[in-house]
Amino acid sequence: MLEELWERPPFSMDHMEKTQFFKKRMQALTIKHAEGCEAYGRLLDNLHFPFREIHEVWDYPFLPVRLFKESKLQSVPDEEVVKTMTSSGTSGQQVSKIYLDRTTASNQTKALVKITSEFLGKKRLPMLIIDSKNVVKNRRLFSARGAGILGFSMLGYDVTYALDEDMKLDLDVVKAFLDKHREETIFLFGFTFMIWEHFYKPLSDGKLFLDLSKGILLHGGGFKKLEAQAVDNDTYKKELNRVCKIEHIYNYYGMVEQTGSIFMECECGRLHASNFSDIFIRNPKDFSLCQKGEKGLIQLVSMLPESYPGHSILSEDVGEIIGEDDCPCGRCGKTFRIYGRIKQAEVRGCSDTYERK
Predict the structure, then answer these.
(1) Is residue 95 part of a domain?
(2) Measured in whole angstroms, how far is the alpha carbon of residue 136 from the centre of its chain?
């Protein structure tokens, strides 16, 4: 079913077409995982969930994201697992483990490329990563932060790390990179807090200046650590523009449990669901569906996970749907905003869990 999507623009499905497509895909994935993952199948049996009889996308069962920390949820034999990813977490926290076979890993990569090319263009760009190369070590078992860096680095060339081993801005390396590519559009990637702490702050006093007026910045991982500094999304963009003249800054939302089918912020400041994903908002009291404009827990649906039952998960993030197929940017799909995590939930974003040594 995915083959059709590789040939289409990533935000081209309107509500009616997407609903019909997702009904078929969700049924196929739910049956596959119920049969392939013993823990998932047992859970559905114990709940007497009639998943073979469901006709609406929002009625398919969802898993609380925390279950991936507490259970081994895997739908393929061990010998088919080519990569194990772990979620971000602060010291002492349990982390999610996500088991990928070759098909799922490939589809996640293709979806990521498809979605981001809408904002970066189809040509690979010279890439500056606002992080240290030390993050990427074990290619078979690595964190969400390392997975994000590796995944996005495939979208660029001449990949260069802006921070040294001590997480300090390496000005010589950055200046040499910018001088080498001064006539080109630059792709910058990093996690929200790290960019602010280790890139913005060294430039904020005005003594240093880097011209990134031709740059495009993608960042994600959460704003929670910046709340104490009164830094929201608008402030973030304005301040980065002030210190390095960068204008094209896009936030994205996603998690390791559904790598690839990320939600990108458009030019109008709205987060978008692509052809590969959908969202619903759930009332935290009874898990009923919320209407547009009502706040609740974000349920994330992805048609990519085949090696583990991560196709429908309930996050611990609070959000609301803004609209569907009506964004001024012209892209189809639901648009939404995020208000942060529910109280007493574990901090888990790539930026928010980052701890200084």
Answers:
(1) no
(2) 18
Burial class from Cβ neighbours inside 10 Å (0-12, 13-18, 19+) for residue 295 reads: middle
- Residues 147, 233 within the same domain: yes
pLDDT at position 137 is 65
- Contact predicate 221/149, CB 8 Å: no
Residue where one domain finishes, among candidates 223, 253, 283: 253
Dist CA 328 CA 326 (whole Å): 6
Q: How many domains does the chain have?
A: 2
Q: Pick from 65, 81, 68, 80: which is nearest to 39 by CA?
A: 68
CATH number at residue 13: 2.30.38.10
The phi, psi pair for 201, rounded to 5°, reads -60, -40
pLDDT digits (tens, 9 = 90+) for 126-140: 999 999 888 776 554
Report d(CA 152, CA 316) in Å as an integer: 25
| Domain hosting residue 40, numbered range | 3-80+269-341
Tell whether 162 and 49 lie within a shared domain: no
Residue 260 maps to a domain: no
The H or E element containing residue 314 is strand 312-324
Q: Which of 46-60, 97-111, 129-143, 308-322 has the lowest mean pLDDT?
A: 129-143
Give CA 351 to chain center in angstroms: 12
Tokens 């400041």 label which residue?
269
pLDDT digits (tens, 9 = 90+) for 249-259: 999 999 889 99
